[in-house]
Design brief:
Length: 511
């Protein structure tokens, strides 16, 4: 039925707009008809367990759900749901009479704008990733919370599909190494779940289980009019969508790492957290990344037909193993450290800290961001009391990140010995190495960076040259003991950052 109807719809006279050309894209659940200016998406009458489109009312309902849910993150992309009337052989779009099918009308965009396509061509930038982090953070912050009486998002509901993954993968495997790896992954998932179960339930109680997107990856994001647009959320399965926000960001982080973009994945997570402040859930990140990787591993196996030849089977197994190995990487015990920056405002500390994020997987904590997040209503953001409380908050968050198994870099001036000493004690208590990154640059460079930052008006810092001059006059030099635990970086010399990263890797080879 669907193929006959799709063929009959390829008639320009049926559409109330010019048709440049017809192109049909088929997925396992949809037919997508491209006309040039608009796209018409029709759901297949299929039942895969996790979705059921077998009845016409269901297809209508999920077309309407797709329209409504995707309008949360897009503007003027998802337009309307239209009935198809007439007959399969002679259909009418939005005509009179009883509907025989429904289509979702969308504005068409060039496929070459997909971020997955840009990535394949080497054109994906940090600006694209930062834009995605901002949009996803804002989306999560305003998305409705899943009520406590709804079982979705509880620890047990989270674990059910994880267990199902292992059950569904096992029959496809026969080689001993694959079976041993799968068994180890299942054991890690089970022990991780028992450890994380109280946190998962607390997250539901605290409102972090929300109506999310459910399918965020580079293939579901595109550039339209130069702006990143995230589309195609999960409309057909509430458990996939009503989940912890970390399940949403974990998917994109995993997708980036699968594409060999580990530095961008790290940047995305750290930027997202700076915007939301949701550091408390960090312990869940690797669990959700491993789950998402194994979903893709399972889907790869599902694509294997019974009559596939040896070459096809080998290719499918390679794809499976790539995802299984990625999932396994999330179970590794990391090498952690706690680093702080030291230097006056506008000296380039944030860029140094971001380099440690991208190169070494650290989470960046910024004093300017946390100061305004916690003390936004305070009369004097830079009073001694607020500054002391800000450093205390940074130390508290550093402990949260380290307990989640991730290294951390605190981006702050740390001009006072007492501030540095208090954070060093956090590292000592957590049993991780402590490093002071002593940042410096010529005054002319600092002045230039400060002017650039103020012109862009995108930095959380309020520093002026007067503030910087006061910092230079009042700063307390590093002690002899602190110098032994520090690395000096001229922030305007790119090679200094390369040396810093290489030095940390030499001392912590697990990074």
């Amino acid at each position: 039925m669907s193929q006959t109807l799709i063929a009959a719809l390829q008639n320009p006279s049926l559409f109330p707009h010019p048709v440049e050309q017809f192109q049909v894209i088929e997925t396992h659940i949809s037919w997508v008809l491209l006309t040039g200016p608009y796209v018409y998406k029709m759901k297949k009458p299929v039942n895969f367990g996790f979705l059921d489109f077998t009845s016409l009312p269901a297809r209508q309902h999920f077309c309407e759900q797709e329209l409504m849910l995707n309008q949360r993150l897009t503007d003027d992309l998802y337009l309307e749901v239209l009935p198809i009337t007439g007959s399969i052989e002679a259909p009418q779009l939005n005509g009179e009479g009883e509907a025989i099918e429904y289509v979702l009308k969308m504005r068409q965009f060039p496929q070459e704008g997909l971020l997955s396509t840009l990535q394949a061509k080497g054109e994906l930038t940090t600006a694209h990733i930062d834009d995605m982090a901002r949009q996803i953070a804002e989306f999560h912050l305003k998305s409705p919370k899943v009520p406590m009486e709804n079982p979705l998002g509880s620890a047990d509901s989270v674990m059910a599909p994880v267990t199902q993954n292992f059950e569904q993968i096992l029959p496809f495997l026969s080689e001993k190494s694959d079976l041993i790896q799968l068994e180890a992954l299942e054991a890690w998932a089970n022990t991780s779940f028992e450890r994380l179960k109280p946190l998962m339930n607390q997250r539901k109680l605290d409102g972090f289980v929300r109506e999310c997107h459910g399918d965020i990856h580079l293939g579901n994001a595109t550039l339209i009019d130069g702006q990143v647009v995230i589309f195609d959320c999960i409309e057909f399965n509430e458990p996939f969508r009503m989940t912890d926000v970390y399940a949403d960001i974990g998917f994109l982080a995993m997708d980036l790492e699968d594409r060999g973009l580990k530095s961008l994945s790290r940047r995305f997570v750290s930027q997202y957290l700076e915007l939301t402040g949701d550091y408390a859930g960090l312990q869940l990140l690797n669990f959700y990344k491993a789950y998402r990787a194994l979903v893709r591993a399972k889907v790869a196996l599902f694509s294997l037909n019974a009559d596939a030849d040896q070459v096809q089977r080998a290719a499918t197994l390679r794809q499976y193993r790539n995802y299984a190995n990625l999932a396994e990487s999330y179970s590794a015990i990391p090498s952690n450290f706690l680093a702080i920056t030291h230097g006056v405002s506008a000296v380039g500390k944030s860029q140094v800290a971001m380099r440690l994020v991208e190169a070494l997987g650290a989470i960046r904590l910024r004093s300017d961001v946390e100061r305004k997040r916690v003390f936004a209503d305070h009369e004097d953001l830079y009073s001694a009391d607020v500054s002391a409380a800000t450093y205390g908050r940074l130390n508290e968050l550093a402990g949260v990140v380290l307990r989640a198994g991730l290294p951390v870099v605190i981006d702050a001036t740390y001009l006072k010995h007492a501030q540095r000493q208090a954070t060093a004690q956090i590292a000592e208590a957590m049993g991780v190495p402590f490093l002071i990154v002593d940042c410096a640059a010529p005054t002319a460079v600092i002045e230039g960076w400060l002017a650039q930052r103020r012109a862009q008006n995108q930095d959380p810092s309020d520093a002026t040259m007067e503030v910087i001059e006061a910092q230079l006059a009042s700063r307390e030099a590093l002690t002899a003991d602190e110098i032994l635990r520090s690395r000096h970086v001229e922030t305007n010399v790119s090679g200094d950052l390369d040396t810093l990263v290489a030095d940390i890797r030499q001392h912590l080879p697990g990074l």
